[in-house]
Amino acid sequence: MVKSSGYKMIGTNGLFFPILGFASIIAFIFLSFGDLLSVKYKNEISLSFVERNGTNFVVDDQLFYINGWNSYWFMDHAVHDHSRARIRTMLQAAAKMGLTVCRTWAFNDGDYNALQISPGQFDERVFQALDYVIAEAREVGIRLLLSLVNNLDAYGGKTQYVKWAWGEGVGLSPSNDSFFYDPSIRIYFKNYVKTILTRKNTITGIEYRDDPVIFGWELINEPRCITDRSGDTLQDWIEEMSTFIKSIDNKHLLTVGLEGFYGPKSPKRKRENPEFWAADMGVDFVRNSAPSTIDFASVHIYPDQWFKNKSLEGKLKFVADWMHSHIEDGDKILKKPVMFTEFGLSDLNKGFDPSQRDEFYKIVFDVIYESAKKKGAGGGSFAWQFLVEGMEDFNDDFGIVPWKRASTYRIITRHTCRLAKIHGVGMMITRNMKNICKGKW
């Protein structure tokens, strides 16, 4: 799914910190986040692996529903001294909201600050930045959902793999979709994945595949294979790569990274897909999520990108229907959890007001809460995207600094507390839960 031209792209490192206009906001931020820059690695928080039990996530045999977010930029910002502190600031701010899992990139292929410079060649400086991200998350008690490659061009993506193979004279085709079927590219990707999974963190001393702070792995962000609309090519790739990952790491959960579109043979393609084109992307939500090597399904929600002429009311109705449809698939067909790993509302919409985004967030959270009350397959949601102050150059039309808008902050923390109330404070891995939910139980 292609968002705005700035979507998930690297910008210049912005150093401008805007002066906040209201003394109350300044006081709030100072009191809440003034202690975030101290760097220690005490590993005080003990974490167990998140597992799957049917349609639910569990930790230590207790149900675990996720209130999460996206900060794709963590590894890139951890490379440089002047931007590294933003990772801890964001993680500690998230912990103060009761958030428990962050989705972020564990890839950067052949781009600025590339982790993988060329096939099988890694920049140790950037790898140590990823080590730092994982160590910081462990210190704060936030888990990470790590994505392994991009379907889009940002940060290299499958396009870069195709360029490498084509440049070395071993590629079958210059088509971006050859990423999924070219034997040489499959070898490139497997070598990359093995290197990531078996990496020994230079800070914690723990191999990634043995680290429970990693919630799980995502095969690819928003896969599409439009040159094979039947979906067979992508399905074969999913089955091969998920089997390969599980042969190396059977401790972590694995998902595909889907947007959630129903394929050409799905009975839901006309009724539930946003528009007719969605069935022609070479993907199918149910089929792609079905292999036993895939532990949970993933879905994205971008109504204003998928519809250009719907009213806000129509878009929000679609959001609720879209979510209910996929949770139903998780409950009745897949028998697996369903995670809404990206959701966002653009501020470029005509007549946009921040209250519209609040309403959108509330609908997403309400559907998750409905499912959680029934111990259903709606496993959690991840807002796209959260930033800290001074990151204007990295923002797109979906990003927010959540604590800068009091109403948004309340909606997020209210969702945290509702989930905690259902399944107990112990399920939400944060030091601040009692403070967060004081007066909200």
UniProtKB/TrEMBL annotation:
InterPro entries recorded: GH, Glyco_hydro_5, MAN-like
Subcellular location: Secreted
Record GO terms (molecular function): mannan endo-1,4-beta-mannosidase activity
Chief place of localization: secreted
EC number annotated for this UniProt entry: 3.2.1.78
Domain Glycoside hydrolase family: start-end pairs: 48-386
Gene3D superfamilies in the cross-refs: Glycosidases
Keywords: Glycosidase, Hydrolase, Membrane, Secreted, Transmembrane, Transmembrane helix
One GO cellular component term: extracellular region
GO terms of biological process kind: polysaccharide catabolic process
Pfam family, any one: GH5_mannosidase
Catalytic activity: Random hydrolysis of (1->4)-beta-D-mannosidic linkages in mannans, galactomannans and glucomannans
Highest rank taxon of the organism: Eukaryota
Ranges that cross the membrane: 15-37
Family per similarity comment: Belongs to the glycosyl hydrolase 5 (cellulase A) family.
UniProt name for this protein: mannan endo-1,4-beta-mannosidase
